[in-house]
Amino acid sequence: MDSLGHKFRTVRESQGLTLEQMTARTRIQKVHLKALEEDSFAQLPERVFTKGFVRAYARSLDLDEEECLRMFAECSASFYQNKKEGERLRKLFLLKEDEHKEKTSRVMVILLVGGLVLLGGMVLIQQQSPSTSIFSRFLQQVVKPRDAVLSKPEQPGNVNEIAADRPPAGIEGQVDDSGATNTGSASETDVAAIPAESPVGDAASTSFLLPPDSTPISSPTTRSEDDPLVLEIRTLEMTWIVVRSDENEPAEALLQAGEVVQWRANERFLLTLGNAGGVEVRLNGQLRGPFGESGVVVRDLELRP
Question: What are the distances in angstroms from CA 279 to CA 116, 170, 289, 291?
Fold first, then answer.
């Protein structure tokens, strides 16, 4: 059965009329009349306005308006059904995006409040117990052994006299040559010789692991037959997409302008674009498309190497 567009073009040419003449008769833009004759419903306005174009074109060619409207409904049924489904998916994606933003905002508020409460608690502990707080550990200085010796003021007199008057250092409770018990502690020099424990030893020994380098995607010139297919989509405008890799479940996404996403497959991709003119599609680094103008919905687009 001939389509409505083929019927319009055949009748117009049989009457010796041009598209410019039909534009003057119907007052419809030439681009819309041409889209009607080519059954390019994606280039036409909303359905209610397109039905008005069909009625006016049929009247200008002395055709049955109701019969032309019936043919238009049959020819455009699948297109408008897909368009309706695309609008439904688009609204669903926008709703999910709003929910995600709201959830992210709540999490950020909770983290901010929790951080402020934790910081306030740490400051309060610091004020109440400055000598034992965690902050004071990092403000302590390591005392070197020789600093303790140098800090001992020298007494005046002969060195030998000082040595004779000072009892030998020993262990507490040890009996010396005179029979007296040594009840004193080790000398200051012996105490100073004990190395001080560094308060920041644990922090200084902490190490960090860096994440391994990500494996680069093979370029088309070095890719072997066993390497997977790589689909890269770069958005120029906000759009929603549905991608099916091989026979896997379809993946849906609503992308903002400037985002770049990638998928992998072994044999093929099945792609649906909600805004065909708003994306750049590359398969293994090679640019594919364009698949339509801005705002045009393209469904079930198969991509193979």
Answer: 43, 86, 9, 9
